[in-house]
Amino acid sequence: MFKSMLSSDNILPNEYVLATVIASCSDSARAREGEQSHGFVVKSGLELHQYVQNSLISFYFSCSNVESGIRVWTSLPLHDIFTYNSLLNGLLENGHFSEALEIFTDMVNNHIFSWDGFTFSTVLGLCASRKDLRLGTLLHCRLLKTNSPDYDAFLCSALVDMYGKCGKV
Questions:
Q1: What is the DSSP string of 102-138?
Q2: For the chain, what are the domain ranges?
Q3: What is the tens place of the pLDDT at every residue in 92-110?
Q4: Could you tell me the pTM of the whole model?
């Protein structure tokens, strides 16, 4: 479908279509198609669109191409909470726990954005993987103090997982 859209003279995909196409390539079997889509994104000038950025970052990390995921992230002129979340999640999924912790520490130290539920659950997953009860407990306390509206079942599951993997069931 996408290839036929490209071959048509009248139809050019927008940033939402491109983000969807890239997201559909998020496995190693379709990595080549995702890379070709990235090339089209650059040629079309849509690489700075938020949906496309996050799709590209997630695509490369999903294909275990950490270097390219980081390269896309660092090439962006501006970072928002969504691109930070994509980076954190990608690093965590690929076992780059120290790098993810550095990014999160940088976010905290430089007061970058207010965190959302996804940020909290991703970093709690990092704490679970590293068995870092101290940081996990600090995050839990922050959640309780801020009375976060993002305190939902997904976040509670991340807390249970973190405490369980740290041996504090």
A1: HHHHHHHHTT-S---HHHHHHHHHHHHHHT-HHHHHH
A2: 1-77, 79-169
A3: 999 999 999 899 888 888 7
A4: 0.79
